[in-house]
Automatic annotation (TrEMBL):
Keywords: Carbohydrate metabolism, Cellulose degradation, Glycosidase, Hydrolase, Polysaccharide degradation, Signal. Residues 1-20 form the signal peptide. Gene3D superfamilies: Glycoside hydrolase, family 7, domain. Pfam families: Glyco_hydro_7 (PF00840). The lineage of its organism: Eukaryota, Fungi, Dikarya, Ascomycota, Pezizomycotina. GO terms for molecular function: cellulose 1,4-beta-cellobiosidase activity. This is Glucanase. The keyword S-adenosyl-L-methionine does not apply. The keyword Transport does not apply. GO terms for biological process: cellulose catabolic process.
Length: 466
């Protein structure tokens, strides 16, 4: 799930004095209600009345004189406003000034501000939301168990089913659903005394891409610089294991597991967050996490007519995605028009003749696709079972365009323009490479929205009968 951002600035007021990352007290934080179904067997399912909370990265961050703390470029790069707070020498741990002065404000009206609408078992997330004060791009939401605690799930031995509508989600946009090894309290306990906002205000995000667009990392204001890119870019990030159930648009999708050096939340800084992208000369070093992980994308595996508009799984209409986490294999199938549609096996020599993630599939991918084997560097399947399958994970749902240096070519196009198009694994989808520029994707997807519904979780075979 890639970094998302908001251009929304709200002229709110604040009167309190702060000494740590705290909540604002003027805009109400009203979590949209959302219902999901918890199953213990095919005949025993109950409705869970839960809530949703917006990631802290979208919220208005301000000082006690209601001055905006965070400025932002069109491409999503952000920096702390020097007129409001001093980031110090921009080395890790030097950001106490911004941390103590800047507060997270409540999200207010989720629908009007962020394009998020929840009703019963259905959630809609719009890509572009235009309002009087600006434009919001995308959203990232976490499922709550209660007001100040995220709902957690253990994947092994279970399955997840949900219905999705991606008919308006075009090239360069990623509608994503997955699980990350976040702290259930949003990092309050881990990052005392700096984080006092917690899960109620959507704090503590991390993932297998070590997202370095975070405003707060480890409860403190994240290091970043204005207008600096490529090899000079310095920005704190947050890493943790991730199972990306569903990265998708109407043209392509993938499922992937991302393992890391550490088993849970771990901060990183600058090029150490993303070797091979920010610093290509470091591409053979071991990154904190496996950026692409072990992945299954049917288009990349050679099934070009399986998924998309008018194809076997027809994305012009709703369909159901079922994901099963067996011990030795994690796989998916679809249901559309009442029929089960299984995902095809790879066509490439050297890969198992079975879809989904398995020890053999994850061990063979790097060699077949001529890539650096970061999966093996992190001890592969053994780490995957410990970090991803057997620990509590937080559910995340989002819609976004990618940031300026990753784009979404990894999802629906080709990663690099100069790649050999005939080499196995190069084509990840049918989209033009140029459509993945974030500003282009936003311009051509102004009506894009993803609709999630009928989410069910429980032991394998309990959530759906086909």
């Amino acid at each position: 799930m890639t970094r998302l951002f908001s251009l929304l600035l709200l002229p709110l007021l604040l009167t309190s004095v702060v000494h740590a990352q705290k909540k604002g007290n003027l805009n109400p934080e009203n979590h949209p209600p959302f219902q999901w179904t918890k199953c213990t067997s095919p005949t025993n399912c109950t409705t869970a009345n839960a809530g949703l909370v917006l990631d802290a990265n979208w919220r208005w961050v301000h000082d006690n004189n209601y001055r905006t703390c965070v400025e932002q470029n069109r491409d999503g790069t952000q920096w702390w406003n020097p007129a409001v707070c001093d980031l110090g020498d921009e080395s890790p741990g030097s950001s106490n000034n911004c941390t103590s002065k800047c507060l997270l404000e409540g999200a207010g009206d989720y629908r009007w501000h962020y394009g998020v609408t929840a009703a019963n078992t259905t959630l809609t997330q719009k890509l572009v939301t235009r309002i009087e004060f600006g434009t919001n791009i995308g959203s990232r939401l976490f499922l709550l168990e209660k007001k100040d605690r995220y709902q957690t799930f253990v994947l092994l031995g279970n399955e997840l089913s949900f219905e999705v509508d991606l008919s308006t989600v075009g090239c360069g946009v990623n509608a994503a659903l997955g699980f990350v090894a976040m702290d259930a309290d949003g990092g309050v306990e881990r990052h005392r005394p700096w984080n006092e906002a917690g899960a109620e205000y959507g704090t503590g995000y991390c993932d297998g891409w070590c997202q370095d667009g975070q405003r707060f990392v480890g409860g403190r204001a994240a290091t970043n610089k204005e207008g600096v890119k490529d090899s000079d870019w310095q920005s704190d990030g947050a890493c943790c294991p991730e199972f990306a159930v569903w990265n998708s648009n109407a043209h392509s999708y993938s499922m992937s597991s991302h393992i890391c050096e550490h088993d849970d939340y771990s901060p990183c800084n600058g090029p150490f967050c993303k070797p091979g992208y920010v610093h290509p000369e470091d591409r053979f070093t071991t990154p904190e996490c496996t950026r692409y992980g072990c992945e299954y994308n049917p288009y990349r595996m050679g099934a070009r007519e399986f998924y998309g508009k008018g194809k076997l799984v027809d994305t012009t209409r709703n369909f159901t995605v079922v994901t099963r986490w067996e011990k030795d294999r994690q796989y998916q199938f679809f249901i559309q028009d009442g029929k089960r549609i299984d995902v095809p096996a790879p066509i490439w020599d050297g890969l198992p003749k079975q879809s989904g993630l398995s020890e053999d599939m994850c061990a063979a991918q790097a060699d077949v696709f001529s890539e650096i084997d970061h999966w093996l560097m992190h001890e592969g399947w053994t780490t995957h079972q410990r970090q991803v399958l057997n620990r509590p994970m937080v559910l995340v749902m989002s819609i976004d365009t990618a940031d300026w240096y990753t784009w979404n070519t990894w999802l629906d196009s080709t990663l690099l323009v100069e790649d050999d198009m005939d080499r196995p694994g190069v084509k990840r989808g049918p989209c033009p490479w140029e459509d993945n520029e974030p500003w282009t994707a936003q311009a051509i997807n102004t009506q894009a929205k993803v609709v999630w519904s009928n989410m069910r979780f429980g032991p394998i075979g309990s959530t759906i009968q086909v």
